[in-house]
Amino acid sequence: MSTYLPTDPHRTAPRNGVRPNNPPAPATQTGPAPLRLVPPPEDSGIRTPGHCELGLLGGFHLVVEDVVVDTGPTVQRLLAVLVCLNRQAPRHKIARMLWPDASHDRAHSNLRTTLYRLQRQAPGLVLSTKTDVRLAPELRVDIDSTRAFASSLLSIRPDDHAEVMPLVQWTELDRDLLPDWDDGWLIEYQACYRRLRLDALERLADLLTVKRQYGAAVQAALAVIHADTLRETAHEQLIRAYLAQGNRHDAISHYAGYCKTLRDELGLDPATTLNELLWSQAS
User: Fold this and answer.
1) What is the mean pLDDT of residues 166-190?
2) In 3-state terms, what secondary structure has residue 140?
3) How many whole angstroms separate alpha carbon 271 and alpha carbon 107?
4) What is the three-class DSSP state of 37?
5) What is the signed CA dihedral for 234, 240, 244, 245, rounded to 10 degrees?
6) Mean pLDDT of 217-245
7) Distance from the first to the final alpha carbon of the chain
8) Residues with Cβ < 8 Å from 283, sequence gap 6 or more?
9) Distance between CA 93 and CA 119 in Å, rounded?
């Protein structure tokens, strides 16, 4: 058996003068592990992110462990696409949506690069396989909760609104989906969400009027009008709230302003039902 001769002067020879087969185990680390910046293999899907939130209403923002993550536009669009596609989609569909003018190979190469960058910045936020990409279930997205609330407002019965009212203060129904983005693939999703939120705001104004929370009802109706100046049902809901509140002057003034806007923009007069509503209750 050969004798071990250490080359490091500060290193002592092993017991019995024999080189050990295995190095000693490293010391056990105490306390929380530091954040690793080296990305895991793309398809491993084993890392779980901490508390993370993705916001798409009013603009893009990503927060991981209470820290705002500054991502590039391509990473932002990957996350937005996954949200629009219900958090999971095939690789080929994502590549085609984000890079419609690129070849098949180039689009998939771009997707792999984008996934790699995202894993470096926020490990585990997106999980991928050879065929699919999905958002981690721990990721909270603002539009998910807002869409669920809007849908509940539209399906609720007039006499069953008590449990929904406490949630009003938590909604984000006054903001559109990524309003500053003009990507072609996003237009349909923006329009769909906009219709949903405006319908929900009108319904909310109606429920608040029934509940005699007139100030909040007025604000909900005004939020719809701010988004769509010519939406007649929103003007009707606002006038109803004003009249229920006892502010006949506000109702008449708003009606006169709406008549002028409608004639200037479209050369039309308001529906006769709106005129009848105003004068039957204001007189």
Assistant:
1) 88
2) strand
3) 51
4) coil
5) 40
6) 95
7) 112
8) none
9) 20
Question: What's the rounded Cα separation, in Å, for the pair 283 and 276?
Answer: 11
Mean of the pLDDT values across residues 245-273? 94
The pTM (predicted TM-score) of the whole model is: 0.77
Mean pLDDT of the chain, nearest integer: 84
Q: Is 199 exposed, middle or buried (0-12, 13-18, 19+ CB in 10 A)?
A: middle
How far is 201 from 210, CA to CA, in rounded Å? 14
Place of tokens 């180039």: 106
How far is the C-alpha of 110 from the C-alpha of 133, rounded, in Å?
14
Does residue 1 have a pLDDT over 70?
no
Choices 1.10.287.470, 3.90.79.10, 1.10.1610.10, 1.25.40.10: CATH for 143-282: 1.25.40.10
pLDDT of residue 38: 32
Domain at 52-137: CATH code: 1.10.10.10
pLDDT-derived band of residue 157, with 50, 70 and 90 as boundaries?
A: confident
